[in-house]
Amino acid sequence: MISWLDRRAKRVEIPRPSTREARLSTTKVDIADLTPELLPYLGQAAYFELGMFENLAQTIRIAPDLYSKEGLSAAAGRALAKHQGLVAEIRRRGGEPSEVMAPFAPALDDFRAKTMGADWYELLLSCYLAGGLLDDFFIRLSDGLPGDVGPRVAHLLGQGAGTDVLVKHLKAAIGGNPGLGSHLALWGRRLVGDTLLVARSAIPAVAPTAGDPASVADHGEERIEPVFTELIAAHTRRMDGLGLTA
């Protein structure tokens, strides 16, 4: 069991499926009514993408050669484009981006500090796994956004992120160093917990239906659990694709 703790609920627990269960999870869950209000959603997603750009810029700074730096620039540019697209959505609704993002800065800065990694390869894996998982999550939450905002945001976040270059560097390193592969597998398993905590913090508490005796927290977590199963399944596929054990 993975224990989740957020500011609005005392303690929630979401079961972690086995690798086999994660692979077999194919049913899409309707979570439209779990989506937060529009501006908070946009603010958290925009600040996350800004952090991803900063992380990818760091991978460029510490890359071992010019060839690697040039390839990683595409991934950094894609993350920045996502951030700018979300900022444009905030401004379209009369919001000031810095004010809308500000409430999420402390938690996301802490998340970045925890998942930065100790070297270039750990940082590459963080960008690939955490970035992919939270992009998946924000795309899923966009189903509940009003009007045509959801499809527009989903299209923006779903565009190619330039992550093929991350995969290329990681596969090459892992293939030539089995010890590194074992180390990165452990790092990947650690990343999923911290990343899912960020996802959980974006979902507001859900009130129970009329006549339902369950508490708000219990009811909400029951609704959310399949969403995390989907996210873990996608994370497992990314790990498998690198030859790592999730």
Task: Quote the average pLDDT.
Answer: 83
| Gyration radius from CA atoms, angstroms | 18 Å
Strand order of the largest sheet: 1-2
Helix fraction by DSSP (H/I, runs of at least 4): 55-70%
Biggest sheet, open or closed, and with what strands and sense?
2 strands, antiparallel
Can you walk me through this structure?
The chain has 246 residues and is mainly alpha-helical. The chain has a single domain, classed as Ferritin. 68% of the residues lie in helices and 2% in strands. The protein has 10 helices and 2 strands. It is globular and about 50 Å long. The two termini are 15 Å apart. It comes from Cryobacterium algoritolerans.
Helix-strand layout with pairing:
Blueprint: E1 2-4, E2 12-14, H1 19-24, H2 38-61, H3 66-92, H4 97-101, H5 105-115, H6 120-141, H7 149-158, H8 164-175, H9 178-201, H10 216-241
Antiparallel strand pairs: 1-2
Helix pairs in contact: 2-3, 2-5, 2-6, 3-7, 5-9, 6-7, 6-8, 6-9, 6-10, 9-10
Name the descriptors.
two-stranded antiparallel sheet, single chain, Ferritin, 2 strands, disordered N terminus, mainly alpha, 246 residues, globular, 10 helices
State the gist of this model.
It holds the Pfam family MiaE_2. The protein is mainly α and 246 residues long.
